[in-house]
Each structure stands twice: as structure tokens, then as C-alpha cells.
Amino acid sequence: MAITKIEVPELFDFGSDNSAFKLPTGTTAERPSSPSNGEMRFNTTTGFVEYYDTTDVQWWEIDYEPVLVNVDYLLVAGGAGGSAELGGGGGAGGLLTNTFSFSPGDSFTLTLGAGAAGGSSYYGGEPYVNYNGVNSSISGSSITTLEAIGGGHPGNYFSGNGGPGNSGGSGGGAAMNVSSSNYWPGSSGGSGVSGQGFAGGDTSTYKTSGSAGVNTSAAGGGGGAGQAGETPTAFVGGTGGDGVQSSITGVATYYAGGASGWSGRANLPLPAGGLGGGGSSARGMTAAGSSVNTQATAGTANTGGGGGSARGWGAIPSQPGGSGVIILRLPTSSYTGTTTGSPTVTTDGTDTILIYTGSGTYTG
What we know:
- This protein has two domains: about 25-30 and about 35-65, no CATH class; about 65-364, no CATH class.
- The protein has strands at about 25, 40-45, 50-55, 60, 70-75, 95-100, 105-110, 135-140, 145-150, 155-160, 160, 205-210, 210, 245, 255, 265, 285, 290-295, 325-330, 340, 345-350, 350-355, 360-364.
- It starts with about 25 loop residues before the first strand and ends with a strand.
- The strands form seven sheets. The chain has a five-stranded antiparallel beta sheet, with no helix packed on it.
- The chain is mainly beta.
């Protein structure tokens, strides 16, 4: 009888027309009753390929670990708006930056926080307003929701005293204290969220009981993501706290700076907003007491910077905080391009960067 010899590699060459090599299939109950070492099959009960090991006398599943994609992210909330009268600087939006991992096919919702409008009520109408910035978040089924908290609104002058700043991602600065004869304690800047931002600047006591105290006639700076807002000196508002510098886009950039506080003298230096889009508050009068109109400035859009406060008396309006931003950075080899919200897409080396200046989604 003739013998047909099958040689390597022909033994393993099933031809280009074969789409796959099919293993024997069956349920767990249908396993061979007397399997030999190395027998392999697809178990329809478990959904895994399995093989038999005579040493351990059992079937072993051939499992696999999904390939995870690592994503660097920068998440910034909206900054607070300024207050209506003689107020502190608006607090910056909270900032989170780190890395998360997900399995291919997962989808994420990206919610961008807006900057808050500035206050508009004068002479005691809103000592404890809540014009905080709006939170930003990243959520999905495979990760714990990430949420940056909106910046804290600054204090507003009322009834001869300065209101405290609101708490937020970074805290708002305290408003100016002023009185000709009475005792007015200093006010506190709002607190920041740990890991996201810092407190706003305080204001000093104007009078101590029975004797003259320190007349600052100025307001505290708003807190930033990397630094607290400063306490004012005489007639010069506190500078805004600096934000945090990130190179997630490939370019070193500051985000989430606090606004400077209101200043009582126009002939003195104008305090600066914090690095990262912090605005500046208005300045008040010349040393001689005549009115001037030094405009407050807004927090920069898509930085989460705090907005500047007004002088009051309707002359100079307060300004809004800057909107937040969400930035994702992942390997280009893993980028699917499946997005909503029209993010700006750039590349840096082997990575793709998505910059969301509005809410949207990403599916990996």
C-alpha cells in the first residue's frame, strides 16, 4: 500500500481559503470521559477554550486579559464670577490631572463646566451669593466618575463690612472691610477642595475694640489650583493664586488661576490675577478720593480662571469666570476617532490629544 507523506510546513498550512481553524465544541457535560494530556476544545458552557492536563487531572481554561488603554487627563471646572461691590477675586475651578485605564469599546461622557456670571446687586443685596463655577466631570461604566468642583464666589461688601468668600474647587477671596468708627472683624476667604485647589485670601480686621486697627480698604485674591489667594495690603487687593502648569497638550500651559481682589486706590499697583487665566478686580479711587473707572477683567475661557469683582455704585460691572476644559491624551495606536462634541484633535509624538471646550463623548 502506498504511503502519503505530509511534510512540514504543509502539515500546518491550511491554505489561504480557510478563515479559521475550528476546535471541537461542546458543553462541560460533553467533555471526553477519558481525555488524554493536551486535548483541546471550546467549552460552550463557559465560553472559553480549554485543555486537559493529566498532571493536575483537570481541564484548564485558556483565559486572556483585555488590553487596557491608558489615558492621561486634565479636568478643569468653571471659574467663579466676581462680586458686585468691593469684592474679593473669584476662585478658580477645581483641577484634576492623572491617568485612568479603560478597555477598548468603552464609552465616556465628558461634561464641561461653565464659568459663573458676575454678581450684579449692590449695597448689601448679596453678601452670601452662590455664583460658583459649574463642575466638570468624566464618567463611564469602567471608571469611577471624576469630578472637578466649580470655583468659589468671592465675598461681597455689605452694610459696612465685607462678606466671606464661598468655598469651591478653589475658594473666593473675602470682600473689603471698611468703617470709620466701628469694630469690624476680618473676613475669611473660601476654602478649596483638597487635591483640586486652594483657599481665597482673607481680609484683615479694620478696627480693634476701642482703638484703630489696620485699614486695608482692599479685598482678598481668589484661590488658584496651585496656590492660595493673597491677603491684601493697604489699599491694594490680594493677587490671585496661581494655577497649575501642565504639558498634557505638548505645550506647558497654566490652568485654573484665581482673580485678584478689589483695590482701594487707583494710583497704586494693580494686583495680578493668578497664572492660568485669573482675571483682575476693579480699582477704586485716587488718593484724593475722586472716582475712577478701572475695569475688572474676566477669567480666561477654557482655563477655569476666576473673574474679577466690581467697584460698585454701578460704575464698573463684575466679570464672569472662565469656562473649564477637558483634555485627554492617549496613544495614537489606540485612538478610534469616535467622538461627539467636536473636540480639537492634535498629535504630539506617538500620542493623540483631544481638547474638549464643550461637553461631548469619547468611545475607545
